[in-house]
């Protein structure tokens, strides 16, 4: 957890958005000063994570109001296992007493009001992943996911009708299907400080054009590192997506895909091209309840395009994109600079952090 040099802005309702940043140089209009990264206090105590997400998942408190539950076994199931803890119906703050790999033969269903907190250990999940099925109020923090197998294997699968979720500081790589999939009316979700690597179909939001009820989906993705993954950073249908301060580099097809009715607000992100240059791709599809096919909508504010990256924006459609201020009053955003880029490269994904001391929630 470190400090970040750069421009710190906390947006509030009706506040103006920052102009497109210049590349870092002595003539940059921004005056660097010391600022503090988002969530700088969440490791002060065990439950300080609760309710600290920025964006659409900001209300997630996880297992704040339940006891601490200790995972003592790396077994797929049975006493002391992660599976056993996640299926319990009551609120729980789940921590790990062991480090190592948990090989899952099937998805672990995470029930409502859970925090799965990997701080203090190094836990890798493989084989299958975590599934949030009609779950609400879940936090997943500081885990590694690698090597999922089977045609339906996602690292974190959020469907159907799950809500109020925060995924923070996870490393995700090399699953057969997706790394994070958010579909089937799942909404109010924040994904932050995650590292995505060695994967093809990285993040899908919105199932397919027939699922018109996915119009309710709202997701914030920020301070994430999409590190050479091929596509879907994310791939969106119907949903409202706020992307800010992410670093996406060396994709192999496109960076962000906007399908039917998607609204993507891309703010102060860094897009660094490799061989492929297209950043934003409009994907024309026909919603099941509409007569004509159409693509989604994208607005870019303050993004930084490197190494020949081409935004390929359709500016006549920008006015169709929502403003985050319609949904939340503030969030922390830095200008897209070299300092932000270096920070994201080194401060995303699983972190070697001690497990903070627990402080029981106070009651009135």
Layout: helices, strands, pairs:
Blueprint: E1 3-6, E2 8-10, E3 33-36, E4 68-71, H1 82-87, E5 92-96, E6 100-103, E7 108-109, E8 114-117, E9 123-127, E10 130-132, E11 136-141, E12 144-148, E13 156-158, E14 163-168, E15 171-175, E16 180-182, E17 187-192, E18 195-197, E19 203-205, E20 218-222, E21 225-227, E22 235-236, E23 240-244, E24 247-249, E25 256-258, E26 263-267, E27 270-272, E28 280-282, E29 297-301, E30 304-306, E31 332-334, H2 338-347
Brief description of this entry?
This is Pectate lyase. The chain has 364 residues and is mainly beta.
**What is the highest CATH level, the class?**
Mainly Beta
As residue ranges, the low-confidence spans are 1-34
The CATH topology corresponds to Pectate Lyase C-like
Which strand-content bin applies to the residues?
25-35%
Structural class: mainly beta
Characterize the largest beta sheet: strand count, sense, and whether it forms a barrel: 10 strands, parallel
Q: How many extended strands? A: 31
How far is the N terminus from the C terminus?
32 Å
**CATH architecture term:** 3 Solenoid
Mean pLDDT equals 90
Please tell me the total number of domains.
Answer: 1
Shape assignment: globular
Strands of the largest sheet, in order across it? 4-5-8-11-14-17-20-23-26-29
- Tell me the Rg in angstroms: 20 Å
């Amino acid at each position: 957890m470190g400090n970040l040099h750069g421009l710190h802005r906390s947006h509030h309702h009706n506040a103006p958005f920052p102009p497109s940043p210049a590349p870092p140089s002595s003539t940059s209009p921004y005056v660097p000063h010391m600022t503090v990264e988002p969530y700088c206090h969440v490791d002060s105590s065990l439950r300080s994570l609760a309710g600290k997400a920025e964006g659409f998942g900001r209300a997630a408190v996880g297992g704040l109001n339940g006891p601490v539950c200790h995972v003592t076994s790396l077994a797929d199931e049975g006493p002391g296992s992660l599976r056993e803890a996640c299926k319990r119906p009551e609120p729980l703050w789940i921590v790990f007493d062991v480090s190592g790999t948990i090989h899952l033969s099937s998805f672990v269903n995470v029930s409502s009001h859970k925090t799965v907190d990997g701080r203090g250990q190094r836990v890798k999940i493989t084989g299958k992943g975590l599934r949030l099925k009609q779950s609400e109020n879940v936090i997943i923090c500081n885990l590694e996911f690698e090597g999922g197998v089977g045609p339906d294997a996602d690292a974190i699968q959020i469907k159907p009708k799950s809500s109020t979720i925060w995924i923070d500081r996870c490393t995700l790589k090399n699953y057969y299907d997706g790394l994070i999939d958010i579909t089937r009316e799942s909404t109010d979700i924040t994904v932050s400080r995650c590292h995505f690597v060695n994967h093809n179909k990285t993040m899908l939001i919105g199932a397919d054009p027939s699922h018109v009820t996915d119009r309710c989906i709202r997701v914030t993705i920020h301070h994430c590192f999409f590190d050479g993954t091929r596509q879907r950073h994310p791939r969106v249908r119907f949903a409202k997506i706020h992307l800010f301060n992410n670093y996406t580099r060396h994709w192999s097809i496109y960076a962000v895909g906007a399908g039917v009715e998607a609204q993507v607000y891309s703010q102060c992100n860094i897009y660094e091209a490799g061989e492929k240059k297209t950043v934003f791709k409009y994907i024309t599809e026909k919603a099941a309840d509409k007569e004509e096919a159409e693509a989604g909508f994208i607005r870019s504010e303050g993004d930084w395009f490197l190494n020949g990256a081409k935004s390929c924006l359709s500016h006549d459609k920008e006015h169709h994109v929502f403003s985050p201020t319609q949904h939340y009053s503030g969030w922390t955003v830095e200008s897209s600079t070299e300092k932000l880029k270096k920070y994201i490269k080194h401060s995303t994904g699983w972190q070697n952090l001690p497990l903070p001391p627990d402080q029981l929630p106070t009651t009135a």
